[in-house]
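Bug: token stream looks shifted between consecutive jobs. Job 1:
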Amino acid sequence: MEGLRPFTIGTDWFTDVDDAVAMRVFARAHRAGAIRIEGVCINARMRYSCASLDAFLQNEGLPELPLGIDRGATGIRGHGRYQKRMAGSPGSHRANEACVDGVRLYRAALAGAEEPLEMAEIGFCQVLAALLDSPPDDLSPLGGRELLARKARHIWTMAGKWDVPGGAYNYNFGQTRENMRAAHHFYEHCPVPVTFLGHEAGKAVITGGVLKGRRDDMLALALRDHGSKNGRSSWDPMLALLAITGGLAEAGYGAVYGRAKIDPRDGKCRWVPDAGGNQRYVLKTRPDGFYRDAINEIIN
């Protein structure tokens, strides 16, 4: 891995448990000194959002991380399966009302960054879209687009389905009308290089089963509550591993350069190739076991 690099993380932290596996990957990289997490933003709100994530991060040895939330993100379909147990674990955990607005979290991290910030997104991007359009404030005299251009180095995103000619629907782009419009707007106008890890990359890589049967491990309990005690597809953990590694070849990927096009009406995405583009999606160059073993070693 490269030296310590500052990061923010966005997560929906909601219906699927791969977010929790990914957060352990990020947390352990932080504790190992590979990255420095400057804040985490939840972009799908439910009753136990901040309390459960706070409890999880405390359990991972990161009790003081700034947390933000999109308070308006209440229209996501589905329900959380593991967050109530986490929120009820011993200790004091921050409620949604105690966490800052997601855009403010990002603006504070960017404005205060002494070196270029990297941003990892494993959920929805309506907060990123709102950040892009945010006006100057007490944190910075720069509007969001200029703040990103000056202070952000790279955006690592788990989203898209890039192996279908002509385009395809993807969960991270298409849960609500707001998600669809936000994804279209942000990736159309983002001034920062973006790396996408698509649905096709993570589906067959199953991780987390190494924790099966542990009753004192919060992540093992989350996997069990989700119905994935034998492991879960590794969309978000693979993005986390890629982001903290940094280099494509070292992480086991090649890339296709160009630009993502997301339809704001239905969330379908397609890729426009361009060898000189500042966006790319990754292609695995190693067997699935390479990524599986690397993630399981970190989370075990």
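Job 2, same session, no restart:
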Amino acid sequence: MKYLVIEGPDFSGKSSLIKELERRLTAANCPVELVFEPGGTQYANHLRRLMLDAEFRNSVGIEEAPCAEAELFAMLSARADLVHRRVLPALAEGKIVISDRGSPSTDVYQCHDEPLRAIFRRYKPLAVPITPLYVFLTIDYDTYAERRAKRDAEKGLDEIEKRYVGRPRFEALAASYRQAALREQNAVHIDAVGKTVEQIADEVMPYVTSEARELQ
């Protein structure tokens, strides 16, 4: 398997880690394809803006955010387009694919009750017909709050990020990620608290290189 999905709560350092992994793999002459969710194709990017950007929705005449059921199907639809258009072809070309988020984030953010989670489980294999290696990052509340405030001041928050403010909401989010990890067949956990991105990458790279060697 050469398909890694980096997961964890907002502001846990996923994007920084992915950039560092790309730098190391590129230096080692390993072909890499970076993707992100939701998004990564024209169709998926449009769905992302409809779900996460209220200003964009208003600009196209949509005043309301999608209901929970619609949001779940939109995430699955965006993922299916990304995986079938970009991930599977890249894997067929021998590339290592690294994704910023994947199915566990949908499990956490969109599956608010068991009926929604049952729908998610039913259609998940259609969107992602292979099993990635999921790398879950964990952070503490103080780190989360500091990074969230910085992002809000610099760029603003998207519609989903705005839902999770305060320690209780963060603790619930972190607990949901722990439960989501237990439901995955192929997952590893990395404690990112107090570590540099280089230190975290040092822990992740053995999984990347061992998985890559396995397919050579």
